[in-house]
Design brief:
The protein is α+β, with helices and mostly antiparallel strands. The protein has three domains: 55 residues, no CATH class; 96 residues, no CATH class; 52 residues, no CATH class. Helix content is 28%, strand content 17%. The protein has seven helices and nine strands. It has a three-stranded antiparallel sheet, with helices on one face. Strands 1-4 form a two-stranded parallel ribbon. Strands 2-3 form a two-stranded antiparallel sheet. Helix 2 packs antiparallel against helix 3. The relative contact order is 0.15.
């Protein structure tokens, strides 16, 4: 496992989150009298997403969304419980929809809050990472910035990039990009989990939807500098599909 940031930043933006989890038809919901189901949750999701390009850019988004709602209505709850995640007994109503279930947003409360918020959500997973390292099952390499996915015969077989100078800057603060070396690693499977583009304001402007008029020159980014979106272009070079959504994380200044 390689990470552009130092070990102190393991978990990325999840650390700063409220620990809210999208779950469907849970004991917490039923205790509060909330009637939920996969069918209702999937209807809500489609009403919000408005998939209208299933033959083009919505194809992967549709497949991912349906699989995720199936997961949220199925094994996700028990899987989280097995990992030691504890939930606050009151279910919140984030992204609340309109008056009808066929419109946008959640038609019922589904926002399950983790005890301990973001840090509490990360804790059991970080413990598993550390245990795997001690047991020799995981090799973690911090300050490794991936700049290339190595492809052979249409399959990604490895990664390449630059080793950055050690930097113990506290979590969330911008770290050095001083290069001290290079690396190449090969594997049977390569998974990219790199986050969004919120701190790369130039990339935000490039992907600004035309329906929102021209992008503002002055913006405030509410995410750490490492949310730079660089892996999107790296992935696209070997045929990866990207879906960039400009959301309310970018705030107009003034």
């Amino acid at each position: 496992m390689v990470d552009q940031e130092g070990e102190q930043s393991l978990g990325g933006q999840a650390f700063w989150s409220f620990g809210g989890l999208f779950l469907v038809d849970t004991p917490e919901q039923r205790r509060l009298g909330v009637k939920d189901s996969f069918e209702l949750a999937w209807q809500d999701w489609q009403g919000t997403a408005g998939f209208d390009r299933l033959e083009d850019e919505d194809a992967f988004a549709y497949r991912w969304a349906k699989a995720y709602v199936e997961f949220a209505a199925g094994e996700k709850y028990s899987w989280l419980k097995e990992k030691g995640i504890k939930l606050f007994p009151v279910v919140g109503w984030a992204e609340r929809g309109g008056s009808f279930a066929d419109g946008h947003g959640n038609s019922v409360p589904r926002f399950h809050i983790t005890w301990g918020t973001g840090p509490g959500l990360l804790e059991p997973f970080l413990k598993r990472v550390q245990s795997a390292r001690v047991a020799g099952l995981l090799d973690f390499k911090p300050r490794h910035q991936v700049t290339e996915l190595i492809a052979k015969n249409g399959t990604v077989v490895g990664i390449a990039g630059t080793i950055l100078a050690e930097d113990n800057t506290p979590r969330g603060q911008e770290t050095s990009r001083e290069i001290v070396g290079e690396f190449y690693h090969y594997a049977d499977a390569v998974i990219v989990a790199s986050g969004g583009i919120g701190a790369n304001l130039e990339l935000v402007r490039q992907n600004w939807p035309s329906r929102l008029s021209s992008p503002p020159q002055n913006m405030i980014a509410g995410v750490p500098a490492f949310v730079d979106g660089k892996m999107l272009a790296v992935s696209e070079k070997v045929g990866g599909a990207s879906l960039i959504v400009i959301a309310c994380g970018i705030i107009r200044k003034g």
